[in-house]
Specification:
With 156 residues, the chain is mostly helical. Helices cover 51% and strands 4% of the residues. It contains five helices and two strands. A two-stranded antiparallel ribbon has the order 1-2.
């Protein structure tokens, strides 16, 4: 038997003709759209962290410096980041409760919300409102959105 025909099976070396039928075909293929077991829980952790940022101050002084600093009466990028994070956590919770992990559209929706939260946080950093430096809120949002994006991007 040549080296290309030799197949190690449970401590023995067998040829193709001696292999059991279940080993000749290989393992059964995974259903399409099946997501890794750790990927979507990681996305949920990311959305939870990003949602936590909505309760934190986003600026050190002025508008957005208190609790719930992402929210406000005037338009800011932090509002979009917080909204995408909260919606992502809500959609992730729905998927977890109803066991709809296998559908590709759910993963695409979660990934879109993670990208939206990360992009709005980046725009908040680039086009910050006046009155001083950033506080901890946008950093937590960026971390959470990145973790959520990694969780939704991992596929088998």
């Amino acid at each position: 038997m040549c080296i290309s025909c030799a197949v190690p099976v449970r401590g023995q070396v067998l040829g193709q003709e001696c292999l059991p039928d279940d080993l000749k075909t290989g393992p059964p293929p995974l259903p399409p759209g099946r997501v890794r077991q750790l990927a979507l829980p990681l996305a949920g952790i990311g959305f939870a962290i990003a949602t936590l940022s909505a309760f934190l101050p986003w600026k050190r002084y002025g508008l957005g410096s208190g609790a719930f600093g992402a929210w406000g009466m005037t338009w800011r990028w932090s509002i979009l980041a917080a909204t995408a994070s909260v919606l992502g956590l809500a959609l992730w919770s729905f998927c977890a409760v109803s066991r709809r992990w296998t559908g590709r559209r759910w993963v695409v929706c979660l990934r879109t919300l993670a990208i939206l939260a990360l992009g709005a946080t980046a725009l908040h950093f680039l086009r910050k409102p006046g009155f001083g430096p950033h506080s901890i809120g946008p950093w937590v949002a960026a971390l959470g959105a990145t973790v959520a994006l990694i969780g939704t991007g991992s596929r088998r």
